[in-house]
Amino acid sequence: MSKYLVADPHVPGGPRRRPDPAPDGRAAARWLTIVPYAAGVILIAVGIVFGVIAYRMLHDHDSFQQSISKTLPFYVPEPATIFGKDRIYVLLLGLDYDYTANDQPFSSHSRTDTIKVLGIDFPSRSIKLVSILRDTGATINGRQTKINEAYVDGGERLSDQVIGDFIGMPVLESGRHFDRYIIVNPNGLKEFVDAIGGLDVPVTEQMDYDDSWGHLHIHFKPGLVHMNGTQAMGYSRFRHDACSDPCRTQRQDQIIHLVIAKLKANKLDDLLHIGEYIGILNRNVRTNFTFDEEKSVAWAFRNANVADLSNAQTIGYSSTIDSPNGELLVPDAAQKERIVAGLFGQYGNATPAPVAALAAIKPSTIHVVIQNGSGISGLAGSAAQKLKAAGYIVDSVGNADAFSYDVSEIRPASKQPLVGERVRADLGVPAARVSPATDATPGPRSVVTVIVGKDFALAQTVSTSTASPPVHAP
To answer: N or C of the chain: less Cβ packing under 10 Å?
Structure first.
């Protein structure tokens, strides 16, 4: 998998950009940033509403009832009522920045080094997140170039058109492909992670990289690492491992998940620091969501399970081609079709089923076929050992149709209710998707097919103290 990424041509008269990365990887990489995007914004909005209530009680000496009447209407309408539809699609863009000859950061001529499409489904209270690699090839103003250049050439509007065409989004009455957009400026992650007191991040590999030009120094050892904002930003930008940008994108989604989890766990602390959070959002986030829309969505998702807000996949690539504008990634057509179909298809959630109902299902009666869809050597074997230890009958262990599964998938052919959910609980990956087996499902139809994704590797590193309690058969 190539790591050779050629930057855009220098803009005449503009600040100089750092040298392009060389094939051997010795040249400095561009700054790459990521922040807690829409999922985080949705949850933060919940805190904002109640933070304003608390602020008015403390600062304006209002009673609780007075504060509520000033902050919230008597009835907060359902998002479907506000938007006139059951589901909306949001374009999420994270801008890059560079340094001038005088070592000053600038973000003019910014590219979108992070590109994500968010599907928010109101009836199921679930979210799907699809990432697009920044060097994916696309046609922009009649030329083949990287998809992240759309923002340079035409801002958010052209990005909407180019990315919408790439995904296959229908055109709305407004002429746009996406219902809403969120654009995040650099440094948002650093400020926000510092504001919430840092993150405990399970690091799965040795990371060492120094970029003096970009003020970037990344040094992590495997294990659970408490990261401040600067460290979390560096961790999410690291791409100097075996799979380069795809793994970088996975780490970005991991950081989003951890931020959401911490926000939900520290509700009281969030209220006390809500003013600081609002300031960070105002400085770093631009969106066409109205306050009423944010309030409605936030209220609807206030009790959502964290696992339902972290359903993320990345559209990978099958090959590369050279162009005058650098090396372009050719999307994996089959994988893209599957991911896009899931984005447009039926939504569900990973909220745990009743423990008593799961406990009634006996693993000793369930045959499973385990397939490695992660590309990580030995991961399917580890999953097989875990399920065998829980009492399952493992019929076979092999490779899946592709190594591009970021999220594990469980495909039960059995008509017995909750079989897939029981396997998911014992596998220990709460966000794994459970869907009925189809004719395209690899392996025998008489068993439960488990396609192990990269999230299983991450789940293995998480402390057992934070894991869900195991389900015991009677």
So the answer is: C
